[in-house]
């Protein structure tokens, strides 16, 4: 397989460059790829503003993200259990794609355009059907920053109705902070892409005899959580409403998350793909560890407030009994304790 790429460099520093994939221009032969480039004359600048774009050329296919085929038409990718850094390029969230008879839907897109390109290549190894939708399960950058690749080939971006405002408010922070963590070269071309379609309550997408049921939730893990159910396989894609092995991260309401987690367990699915960990776990029994963590987080926070602990003291002791159950606990639990304390002190 050959694909079209262009070397893209920062205008401010010509030494900061990377080869960027131009999706939609793939062919089995070099001649076929060259012909597609000549026929389509792609507008690279639209997706690489503020960069110097070199000539478009065709080369053998680049790095492909690893996906497991867990059910007919369902492919899942296990994100690295780590904070985003230069080694993983933002590939720290679970991602998926579902293939119907007429189209493909991507569920979350990774923490950089470079990760999104690797996901795109994985899809193209399985099917040449159009990618109709990229569904973003919530606002966090490790799930949304690869979406530009799919928008470039005409996919509609779908998210919670609170997602556009959440992304617009955080766009510069996400791009600055993730760019610093991942590195300027590998982050080239990464954009925040706002949804074309928003979900207020529920929405069904049809990929061709393959319905996907999208549901928007009240504030829980974040204020923009969306789940994707695939009745055909019995798999529910929860985004970060479910964590496994990776320490939970609270950026919304701990009480809301507890209620939503209870509601998720009543849905008619027997497996889930959490936002981190797994990547496939049995349901609803797989909810037990997160449910226990949230219970402890709430109970310990209320106890700290009753004792009159300061926020600084409370953040160091809340939920410490859970430390052995989760990877990256010391990185995420203090923030969770702070968010929970700020919410519950007004009960």
TrEMBL record:
SMART domains: Lactamase_B. The keyword Hydrolase applies. GO terms for molecular function: hydrolase activity. It comes from the Bacteria. It holds the Pfam family Lactamase_B. InterPro entries: Metallo-B-lactamas (IPR001279), NDM-1-like (IPR050855), RibonucZ/Hydroxyglut_hydro (IPR036866), SoxH-rel_PQQ_2 (IPR030829). GO terms for biological process: antibiotic catabolic process. Residues 92-276 form the Metallo-beta-lactamase domain. Signal peptide: none annotated. Keywords: Hydrolase. CDD domains: metallo-hydrolase-like_MBL-fold (cd16282). Belongs to the metallo-beta-lactamase superfamily. Class-B beta-lactamase family. This is Quinoprotein relay system zinc metallohydrolase 2. It comes from Yoonia sediminilitoris.
